[in-house]
Amino acid sequence: MAQGGWALEIPSPSLYYQLLPRHQVIIQGKKGVKIRGLWYDGRALDPYRDEEGSGRGGRHKDRWTVHRDPRDARFAFFQDPRTHDWHELRWTGMPPAGEIPAFTDARVRELLAAAKQAGLKPRTDSDLLPLLLELIAAHVKAEQWPGQLTKAQRRERAREVAQVKAAAADRPAPGTAGAAIGSRPIRPVPVDEAVDAERRSRREAAVVQPPRAPRRLGEGSRRRANALLATDEPGDTDADLVRDDETGQGEGQ
Question: Positive or negative, the Cα torsion across 133, 139, 143, 145?
Fold first, then answer.
């Protein structure tokens, strides 16, 4: 170093994904991969769904490696072994459109414990979304009343908020070299907005047929009005009556 100096090497953005905790998983058909009790899926898994395994040996024989940030459990990241590109896997409980607030592994444990205590047996992770949003909303409302939380609970809430912000800052921005395909800037989503959007989607899904438009004011009265009586002769129109009056052949001539 004294002779040649110190060579500064700037790490690539993909280093973020490489340093995340690794999970050795099995791709289970159309369901995707399961990590810490939640399911993740994405188009990047399509070429490998029908394969029996990854072909690797050792302790994790035939398993696939997926990375996940415990500070933001909404996404997991999969590196294609053929192209070496990074791809984003979304939590299957997230709505197709829109975003939900970030949540950590601590919130995942609380979610699974609450679902087990309530006796819920969800068919998909989408059934867990309402419960998760209720937990997040209750957590935010409780923060407004510090006296109702213990010192340990307040410390845990503050740590979770700091972890979510740190995960958003560490994640590579879209468009940079090495950024995961499909990633997008993490927009801070208000909890009330996420809860309202989820409840609105459930109401819209419950409506089988849209309600009919109300009748115009006075429409029933106009139908019963004497001015709308039918003509004496079936098939006569106003033009026929006027022509008969002009020729003198109208009724009463």
Answer: positive
Residues written for the chain: 253
Q: Within 10 A of 69 (CB to CB), how many other CB atoms are there?
A: 23
From first to last of its 253 residues, the chain has per-residue pLDDT tens of 788 887 777 778 888 999 999 999 999 988 999 999 999 999 999 999 988 888 888 888 889 999 999 999 999 999 999 999 999 999 999 887 657 788 888 889 989 998 988 888 888 898 898 888 888 776 655 455 455 667 777 787 778 878 888 888 888 877 676 777 776 654 545 555 555 666 666 666 666 566 666 767 666 666 665 555 555 455 555 555 445 555 555 444 4
Q: Give the C-alpha separation, 143 to 239, whole Å.
A: 77
